[in-house]
């Protein structure tokens, strides 16, 4: 489990003068499914394009299965399968033709192409549509074909960029099951901004925000990190002003969320009884009170809303 | 090598799966056949006039029928090739299929050559079609086979150079239409370069007329296959291919 299959070290990428990635360090081990989380525009896609050799980093080093992507790009690409945000499918080909084409380009030996294609189609649930034109398939099947092309050549590393976007709930469930299954044989880097997806598929999570890795930990590790801090979600019919909330003893932080507030307690005192008492006494009409601490969503929000202090996040990651 | 062949064959297949390739072949063939027919009829009239003066022998058949048709075919290809070559790379980027190729273990040169050879294969088919009308002449007369073959070779090389310029243009943009405009502009410029040469005279004339596509092609049409012309077309085609390769390399850096 300790063999490093994806290794990014100090990877920086500039677009013009804009720093899209800032000294990214990331490691994914053999057989691991790693969730790659971040808000839109945080640098997920850029990282994945660098990893798959579509883009060169401005600085830093990248290795796939021990092969340096910059020194030996062609060899490195033989060890990786990439599903971009939009599946790269040729509409005028059938599923079988398409996978055969890419398997051949990706150095599957001539005699083994057919078996490799059959296996990829079976794993991705494409056996019912092998001879249909890709352009006539549903979005879900196109997405599966996209995943199939990423694994058809048996790469060590599979990189999936938001594979479940735009699918219906049943398709999402199937694709997630497939991703879970991919781990073990391949090392998977899965980018998403859907948090439950991470819980269902990943063993480890890296969070990227404004081009920096702000957290890199196991799911349990991340959730433990929030332990000790009690966070609750409260919603009122007539909410008090933020300042009123923050002045209540025991409230360390009050963050607006949806129609209510996330209240973080000081470690030493619990503000909830006082909050409930005040809600009744001042006519705020409390409608909802839910413990929220420790959920992946809260951690994610904490990590990605501290825009003014990114250095802290960097330390937390180390 | 296996990768280049695989890409080339898929490229040709892709062309024939789109109505564009079929339409292009149909238009090219129809117009060339019409022109050939017109040339043959006019040759017959000229022969009658010639013989009515009591002259013996005949007018040069190939030069008056096949050569004009092949000459016009090149002009047609100048107009049509940008439409075919514009898709080579730009279309893959627009359709989002590019990452499937670019993330495969292929060097930029393999991708470019695969694409280019695919285009050449299509051209070979197109020019094979254009050879059919002149072949009918063999039933009625004795065309100069050497000149005919030289003309076909010249047309293939000229079209191959058009394709290389188009490939370069297609690699420079993500919009196929822009690629078509660029390659058409460059090709037309290369075609008419000698016009300027005639007006300037001296050394400039020599240089400009050397670079003119038209001048080199015309040698083939009169049946002359010279190494100077072969080298010219080889250089032009290589320049297009190398430019496209450079673009792919630079793309990874520029993003």
Nutshell version of this structure?
Chain A is 35% helix and 28% strand. Chain A has helices at 44-51, 73-78, 95-105, 113-123, 139-151, 169-182, 195-201, 219-225, 242-247, 272-282, 296-304, 310-317; strands spanning 4-15, 18-29, 33-37, 59-64, 67-68, 80-83, 157-161, 187-192, 204-209, 212-218, 231-236, 251-257, 260-265, 286-291. The relative contact order of chain A is 0.13.
Low-confidence stretches of chain A: 307-318
CATH architecture of the largest domain in chain A: 3-Layer(aba) Sandwich
How many separate domains make up the residues of chain A? 2
Number of helices of chain B: 13
**Backbone CA Rg of chain B:** 20 Å
The profile of the biggest β sheet of chain A is: 6 strands, mixed
Instruction: Report the average pLDDT across residues of chain A.
Output: 85
Order of helices and strands of chain A: EEEHEEHEHHHEHEHEEHEHEEHEHH
Mean pLDDT of chain B: 91
The proportion of residues in beta strands of chain B is: under 5%
Chart the SSEs and their pairings.
The complex is a heterodimer of chains A (318) and B (255).
Chain A (H helix, E strand, L loop, with lengths): L3 E12 L2 E12 L3 E5 L6 H8 L7 E6 L2 E2 L4 H6 L1 E4 L11 H11 L7 H11 L15 H13 L5 E5 L7 H14 L4 E6 L2 H7 L2 E6 L2 E7 H7 L5 E6 L5 H6 L3 E7 L2 E6 L6 H11 L3 E6 L4 H9 L5 H8 L1
Chain B lengths: L1 H16 L1 H34 L8 H25 L1 H9 L2 H5 L5 H23 L1 H4 L9 H27 L4 H16 L1 H8 L1 H10 L1 H9 L5 H28 L1
Helix pairs in contact in B: 1-6, 2-3, 3-8, 3-9, 4-8, 6-8, 6-13, 8-9, 8-12, 8-13, 10-11
